[in-house]
Amino acid sequence: MEGLLNNYYETAAIILFGVGFTILLLHNNLIKKIIGMNIMDTAIFLFFIAKGYIEGKEAPIIVNSYKGVNAYINPIPTGLMLTGIVVGVSTTAFALALTIKIYENYGTIELDEILKKGDG
């Protein structure tokens, strides 16, 4: 239990991922599925950024003097998460564009109704 209280960012990320995954599985509405996917993306970003932060170290921006390698955090996890955010936004935009086309063709964004109309 003490580990959960000390790692509350990671705990929050795991809970957020579970919420997003549950939304993705349990809802038939395509917009709700996209929202669930975005919550899962955000949870992953939070988890990796929390893991990349080290208490007492600074961002790798040299202002007055160089303090040595051990004084700075590793910038790679942050850079990867910025790339992940761009990919997440692009995926969301593509999914929303597909949802609009599905609505234009089927008149609904509920998966059950789309499957019924596709069979008939």
From TrEMBL:
Q: Which keywords accompany this UniProt record?
A: Membrane, Transmembrane, Transmembrane helix
Its protein name is: Cation:proton antiporter subunit C
Its annotated compartments are: Membrane
Domain of life of the native organism: Bacteria
Residue intervals passing through the bilayer? 6-27, 34-54, 74-98
Q: Does the keyword Membrane apply?
A: yes
Instruction: Give the main localization category.
Output: membrane
Q: Which Pfam families match?
A: Oxidored_q2
Q: What's its membrane topology?
A: Multi-pass membrane protein
What's the family? Belongs to the CPA3 antiporters (TC 2.A.63) subunit C family.
